[in-house]
Amino acid sequence: MGTPEFAVPSLKILVENGINVVGVVTATDKYGGRGGKQLIESDVKKYALSAGLKILQPSNLKAKSFIDGLKALDADLQIVVAFRMLPVVVWDMPKHGTYNLHGSLLPKYRGAAPIHWAVVNGETETGVTSFKLKHEIDTGDVLFQEKISIGREETTGEVYNRLKELGAEVVLKTVRAIIEDNIQLLPQDASLISKAPKLHREVCEINWEDEMEVIRNFVRGMNPFPGAWFSFSGTVMKVYKTENIKTVHNAPVGTINSDNKNFLHIAAVDGWVSLIDIQLQGKKRMDVKSFLNGIDVRTFISDSLPH
């Protein structure tokens, strides 16, 4: 069970290693593309079709038609990677239960955006966890965990790409252990719990009253999606990379400073944040020098941005 690109390597590794995948559950097709008139299939569905797998796409996970279809698959085990919260009737169906792959070292970063928040919070390591599902989300007993380090300059997108491959290896290891009846489940340590809530638009706004390093981590944590942003001249400016300029200044927090040619700096509490990789709403993503070639920011230099 899964929908986005993150889940594809996990499904693929099972198929390529001879695991009998009796069916795939993924999201319904969504309208998108130009004009929103094209039906878009999930990444998992695209791979499942290429592999000739049976596909279920329920809009309602409690619907009798879906439950009957799932029972008909007669699966011994269900694996969930980046899917929706499941009702008990679904996750409790197989005789070996349902196992989930989560993009963190549980119980750290329980929730919808574990990779984002690990990077935002300046973590130096993260990883993936396979655990047996129970009713409360992300709380089940742990089977396997694997760690990776997070580089100081790494973005969420870069960590995501490494974790989806590591996660696939853990999924295969999990399935093989269950087949061999060689599992030892361990309860999560409640003292280590932290949250990774869903990213809403307002959560992604840059707070210039933070220290520069906090802002830098926030920006790379929101890169490439959904993108950290601030209000620039009445529109949205997304920021994908910054550098810190540690210096004492008397400028109000949020003040814009630029030579209108090479740099665009914004005052934080402990120095200047240099914008490196940006995207003005309605424009292409570009480096700051290219941006300054097409706009006169001198009229905004003395402005203070909303905090």
UniProtKB/TrEMBL annotation:
Residues forming the Formyl transferase C-terminal domain are 198-294
Record-linked InterPro entries: Fmt, Formyl_trans_C, Formyl_transf_N, Formyl_transf_N_sf, Formyl_transferase-like_C_sf, Met-tRNA-FMT_C, Met-tRNA-FMT_N
**Alphabetical UniProt keywords:** Protein biosynthesis, Transferase
Q: Which reaction does it catalyse?
A: L-methionyl-tRNA(fMet) + (6R)-10-formyltetrahydrofolate = N-formyl-L-methionyl-tRNA(fMet) + (6S)-5,6,7,8-tetrahydrofolate + H(+)
Cross-referenced SUPFAM superfamilies, in alphabetical order? FMT C-terminal domain-like, Formyltransferase
| Enzymatic class | transferase
Q: Which Gene3D superfamilies match?
A: 3.40.50.12230
> Can you give the residue ranges of the Formyl transferase N-terminal domain?
3-174
- Its EC number is 2.1.2.9
MF terms (GO), sorted A to Z:
methionyl-tRNA formyltransferase activity
Q: Is the keyword NAD assigned to this protein? A: no
Sites where the protein binds (6S)-5,6,7,8-tetrahydrofolate: 104-107
This protein's GO cellular component annotations are: cytosol
The answer to whether the entry has keyword NAD is no
Q: Which domain of life is it from?
A: Bacteria
Q: Which CDD domains has this protein been placed in? A: FMT_core_Met-tRNA-FMT_N, Met_tRNA_FMT_C
Which PANTHER family does the protein's record reference? METHIONYL-TRNA FORMYLTRANSFERASE, METHIONYL-TRNA FORMYLTRANSFERASE, MITOCHONDRIAL
Any idea what job this protein has?
Attaches a formyl group to the free amino group of methionyl-tRNA(fMet). The formyl group appears to play a dual role in the initiator identity of N-formylmethionyl-tRNA by promoting its recognition by IF2 and preventing the misappropriation of this tRNA by the elongation apparatus.
Instruction: Identify its protein family.
Output: Belongs to the Fmt family.
Protein name as annotated? Methionyl-tRNA formyltransferase
